[in-house]
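Customer escalation, tier 2.

The customer says the design service returned an amino acid string that "doesn't look like it belongs to this structure." They asked us to rerun it and document both sides in this ticket. The original structure tokens are below, unchanged.
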């Protein structure tokens, strides 16, 4: 085996991959790894990736082959590929499609290529409830309810099912995209948006119609959803994160399609309309009676003959929606998200119940093309007072995080940043309400939390968009699906422990393309040498995997004028 010391990768037999950050081929190798491996940690000099079955299944669903993966590893590896890794990659890819689901007349049939394997798997007691009839050693007629649950079970065993059983047509709903919006702007899908729709729809064949499209915040995922509705021309149920997002979806539908207003319904805590295109919140659907533990609003899934269900921010899908989705496998299902990461570890359920990743567009690729703003990410580390340090030392792990997150010295750094960005639209985002209330009071800025009525939130968002408000303090209610295109600075004062998805969504609030230099600035304030610093490193993993780099700025107690003294940080 020849050694190539100039290359940046070391591929190890435990499926981990080490990538040298300062190697000239770092960016090339990072871009290749993003297609089939997961970033585990990213210290200054060496990034660690891991190849998992799920990462390879999603790669296969996106059109990547086993030989593509092995060729990429070989191209950048110092010491070549361990034989065990090559064998495992080929075996994992071989399992994709080795078991498939078909519709024969009215019958749902599970078909495998290996009779011994099928006999072994279907012999498990847990599978007996799904089998109606054994047709042959490789073919099993299933009960209709089994389509979702059996896919979940087989994924757990390492055998992702290729679902070719097709879909119910659903109620007809003519939808055409406008060439000019109601606002008077020229409209059409961008090339990558059309590619995403095509990857999902697959010309209407059984090979498409279910899956997840992964695109950066600001890439126009709502427009892609409209493109899918236009392709399918069927009644559509759209599920999203909050009432603000529901109304943004409805506004986009009316602005960019020919659908009449009376054809579009809002299903939220305020309104319960069921129309050919209905937009609902996850929250209302998962509302349940504590006495009976019933979910009365889940009946929305059966109140119309839906031809398409769109899951916005699919990485946030609540458990009751997963359970309902398991019984909706005959409906076309589209997941939209900026990241497949779920902090609860249920990525496999997204894969089996919503569908595999059909399309992914790297964030930096979109940035390079000018479709989203160029983001400058900085982690600002600041000290903690000796008094708080004493309290921190004797606190529980959870208390340690909160003490560090609510470090009062953050307010001084925050004010310094606001002085630097006086002419910008700034979002100040945090986790802890008391901290945000204090900041809002000291700055004289409006505050949006979950307690603020929806109508008041929308008014504040509108004032921010119109430039009547330049600073807005927001809790995690603004993490998702809030359209504030003019925001170009986000300052994160505290976060939800090590949540990678939250970090991505918060950066996404400021990535809409900007006039002029198309620049956005993302700051996260972190108390030095605390658990908060450890969590910050984990929070940043996904964005680092996407090609972003965090510049670390250390701030001394007496130097809060740093930002006025230095025009740039490079």
């Amino acid at each position: 085996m020849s050694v190539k010391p100039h290359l940046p990768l070391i591929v190890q037999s435990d499926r981990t991959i080490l990538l040298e950050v300062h190697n000239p081929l770092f960016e090339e190798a990072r871009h290749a790894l993003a297609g089939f491996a997961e970033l585990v940690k990213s210290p200054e000099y060496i990034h660690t990736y891991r190849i998992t079955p799920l990462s390879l299944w999603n790669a296969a669903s996106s059109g990547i082959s086993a030989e593509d993966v092995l060729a990429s590893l070989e191209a950048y590896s110092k010491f070549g590929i361990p034989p065990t890794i090559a064998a495992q990659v080929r075996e994992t890819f071989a399992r994709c499609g080795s078991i498939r689901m078909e519709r024969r007349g009215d019958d749902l049939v599970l078909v495998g290529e290996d009779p011994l394997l099928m006999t072994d798997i279907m012999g498990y007691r847990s599978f007996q409830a799904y089998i109606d009839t054994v047709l042959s050693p490789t073919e099993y007629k299933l009960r209709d309810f089994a389509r979702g649950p059996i896919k979940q079970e087989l994924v757990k065993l390492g055998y992702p099912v290729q679902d070719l059983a097709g879909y119910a047509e659903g109620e007809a709903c003519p939808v055409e995209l406008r060439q000019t919006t109601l606002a008077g702007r020229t409209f059409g899908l961008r090339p990558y948006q059309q590619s995403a729709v095509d990857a999902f729809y697959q010309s209407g064949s059984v090979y498409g119609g279910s899956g997840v499209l992964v695109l950066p915040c600001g890439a126009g995922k709502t427009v892609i959803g409209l493109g899918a509705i236009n392709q399918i021309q069927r009644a559509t149920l759209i599920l999203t994160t909050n009432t603000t997002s529901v109304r943004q979806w409805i506004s986009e539908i009316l602005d960019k399609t020919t659908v009449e207003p009376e054809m579009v319904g809002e299903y939220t805590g305020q309104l319960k309309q069921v129309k050919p295109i209905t937009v609902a919140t996850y929250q209302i659907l998962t509302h349940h009676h504590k006495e009976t533990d019933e979910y009365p609003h889940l009946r929305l899934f059966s109140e119309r003959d839906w031809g398409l269900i769109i899951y916005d921010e699919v990485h946030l899908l609540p458990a009751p929606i997963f359970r309902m989705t398991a019984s909706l496998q005959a409906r076309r299902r589209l997941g939209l998200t900026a990241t497949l990461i779920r902090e609860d570890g249920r990525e496999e359920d997204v894969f089996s119940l919503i569908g595999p990743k059909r399309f992914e567009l790297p964030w930096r690729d979109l940035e390079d093309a000018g479709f989203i703003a160029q983001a400058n990410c900085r982690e600002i580390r600041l000290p903690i007072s000796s008094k708080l340090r004493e309290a921190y030392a004797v606190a529980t792990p959870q208390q340690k995080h909160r003490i560090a997150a609510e470090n009062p010295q953050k307010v001084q750094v925050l004010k310094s940043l606001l002085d630097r960005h006086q002419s910008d639209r700034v979002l100040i985002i945090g986790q802890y309400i008391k901290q945000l209330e204090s900041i809002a009071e000291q700055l004289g800025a409006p505050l949006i939390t979950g307690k603020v009525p929806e109508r008041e939130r929308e008014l504040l968002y509108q004032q921010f968009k119109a430039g009547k408000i330049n600073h807005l303090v927001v809790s995690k209610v603004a993490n998702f699906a809030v359209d504030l295109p003019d925001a170009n600075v986000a300052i994160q004062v505290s976060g939800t422990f090590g949540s990678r998805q939250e970090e991505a969504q918060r950066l996404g609030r400021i990535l809409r393309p900007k006039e002029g230099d198309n620049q956005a600035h993302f700051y996260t304030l972190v108390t030095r040498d605390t658990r908060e610093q450890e969590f910050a490193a984990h929070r940043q993993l996904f964005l680092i995997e996407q090609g972003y780099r965090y510049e670390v700025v250390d701030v001394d107690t007496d130097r809060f004028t740093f930002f006025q003294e230095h025009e740039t940080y490079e």
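Tier 2 assessment: The sequence is consistent with the input. The CA atoms of residues 218 and 373 lie 9 Å apart. The chain has four domains: 9-95, 99-164, 191-361, 370-565. Sent an explanation to the customer and offered a walkthrough call.
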